[in-house]
Amino acid sequence: MSDGTTTRGTSSAAQAGLSNLLHEERRFPPSAEFSAQANGQPDLYDRAAADRVGFWEEQARALHWDTPWDTALEWDAPFAKWFVGGTLNVAYNCVDRHVEAGHGDQVAIHWIGEPGDTRTITYADLQREVAKAANALTELGVQKGDRVAIYLPMVPEAAVAMLACARIGAPHSVVFGGFSADALASRIDDASAKLVITADGGYRRGAPSALKPAVDEAVARTTSVEKVLVVRRTGQDVAWDDAKDVWWHEVVDRQPDTHAYEPHDAEHPLFILYTSGTTAKPKGILHTTGGYLTHVSYTHRYVFDLKPDSDVYWCSADIGWVTGHSYIVYGPLANRATQVMYEGTPDTPHKGRLWEIAQEYGVTILYTAPTLIRTMMKWGEEIPQGYDLSALRVLGSVGEPINPEAWVWYRRVIGGDRTPIVDTWWQTETGGLMISPLPGVTTLKPGSAQRPLPGISAEVVDDSGNPVPNGGGGYLVLTEPWPGMLRGIWGDDARYTETYWSRFPGRYFAGDGAKKDDDGDIWLLGRVDDVMNVSGHRISTTEVESALVSHPKVAEAAVVGATDPTTGQAIVAFVIPRGDAAAATAQGDALVQELRNHVSKEIGPIAKPRQILVVAELPKTRSGKIMRRLLRDVAENRSVGDVTTLADSTVMDLISQQLPAAA
Ligand code: 6R9
Question: Can you give the residue ranges of the AMP-binding enzyme C-terminal domain (predicted)?
Fold first, then answer.
């Protein structure tokens, strides 16, 4: 292997550089020092197993409740209510109580703008900012229960706005700043948002990128918005409607910096977050107050082993995704974390930017996505090696299955061969982490999310809903309600029941394929619509991708099943060659043959791709997920479908141009 991942391999497979999901045998037991200081201990599993609901009540007691609950769980499947009768305020829990406990001077957010400007926000600062914003929302006519759309870049006001909404009980609907006016309009409309909070623009790739024009367009097309509150970030010119538009610095800055909070019911709606489903209309996933905050603070404390007095935590997600909601805003702040928040892109102004920030702020816990890790692999390990990353002690991964090679690279190059890696499986719908190792407790297996967290019940079932034995594969289901679970799809209970609870009645169907290994550990295999069926054999796109990525000449790979007259489906792979191997594109056929044989050797002849296309880029959504649907169009010689959710809509043109005339 060119990147030296074999050096710490513990199995013969590792020595040979093999690592597809079926044969991954490397193991990373926790170090004695880490285990001794870890928040998580093995008895957590036993306690949760002995009394699951009681265990969640114990976690809920870590929060401040204004009124204690009378009933921990009311389960009228598929509708759950947690901590019934209890009241609390999320913003008080995330901010004020830390100040009252004497931590007002602790930094809550080290914010870094892309151009290099910085802001340091303590918990006392955050308390004043949230109070002012809450007062401003009230002045602008927002009342408890009204929906507020938030369309902001990664600036501190994004977190402040969310907390201010939570404080007054106005559910927010954060829309990722990279989405189009169209996407924003449909989300404003679906939730009938009364207020939009936005900015003139934000910095992306070294230049100001406008946001306000998309809001103007969306507001013009919808009927519910009364006011637009605009943060000045870039100073660029904006169109202004005196009847609707107000500046944040004019309205928020002059408000009193104290605000008396009202406790909200544990089941009061906290936010709506839209996610794509199988139809064109996005689903407004609804989360509520007490159970959600319990779930995200508990998981953040144990899975990232947070020590609020000494850690510097950094989640590199955008606030527009659920990861940003649960693991930048609510979980970390409820736990009094000190965190880094970065506005920009990882390669601006240079490819070492993230590692430079990690070094400067002494980041100890980093939570990021496999797509970013693979990008860093592509750029070369010399870049991170130029920085001192020795403060790092826990690394996390989220968003898609992490290939064993990327996992091992992440641990070796970024984690200095020392840090545990927590591969965290969860979804917008689950609210918080569900399946993940516990650092200091679990012996890690690269590529596997391993076990449901204490308090969570998951199973892998076959087509008829029967649990598969160890060694078997099927569908991932969640078998018991959990506090952070979605409470429904906004305005569409029927779709909620149909989408999640009808495939396997009484159980939540996550839409992911999974396998249980001989130890009963869970390996996520990607969305079930990404599972191929070749000559009656079920083969995961992830498995083939992992095999391809384990080849030294491959940086990234995406695999789809294309309709085939003989085998039902055939495997078509798109690969990006690694740095040096870019010249490989020129090698053409020879490289393709080599890779086909490699996959055949790694998984078996059945998995040998029918076709491998060497490309420069892959089509990805703005959250970094590969859009296999578009690749399937290419593989099946169809005209390429809707590309509006692509981060870069020109990628498909590029791929089409690179296609051999007849592959
Ligand atoms: C948090 C988030 C959810 C889907 C989920 C699955 C995939 C997320 C994963 C993972 C394998 C992991 N996914 N984490 N697959 N291993 N550690 O990403 O939420 O955007 O709603 O996506 O992402 O397919 O079903 P969301």
Answer: 543-625
